[in-house]
Amino acid sequence: MGVAREAVDDTAGAAQFIAANGLYDTGAIASHRAAEIYGLDILADGIQDDSGNVTRFLMLAREPIIPRTDRRFKTSIVFALEEEPGALFKALSAFALRNINLTKIESRPQKNRPLRVVDDTNHGIAKYFEYLFYIDFEASMADPRAQNALGQLQEFAGFLRVLGSYPMDMTPIAPALQNIS
Fold first, then answer.
1. pTM of the model
2. What is the DSSP-derived secondary structure letter of residue 174?
3. Catalytic option among 11, 17, 55, 73
């Protein structure tokens, strides 16, 4: 676009800086919501070069967020499977049989084990790439369905780790209204 680019920590912060400093000759790539909050005009929409572009955020807290069942939670896991027919089907069925919605499935080759040989002889069959599977699913770790699904998955996964379980919506829970007489 023939403009000078400047890296910033976050897009909403860039929009806020432009608005706060009255920089009318400067633009920011930010969300519709940031433009609305800071009173900025949207000059162009959909400018990404990848239509499937998404941003994921990681939530950190000083105190752990204890998974509950009174609001929607998402849980992220990573696991590895032995290479055998139907292994991934078995892994995914642990969730399907419990009516747990998967919102993300991603596979990545393990960097430290890019090639393995099935047996110890030089005549063994080469297997290329052992994969890690990353899954996000809609359930709290406090939900027995999630506990049972992970228990089933653990029976045949060579490796399983829960990366986190976190609320899908961070809107504070309103205290119950009490009748005041």
1. 0.58
2. P
3. 55
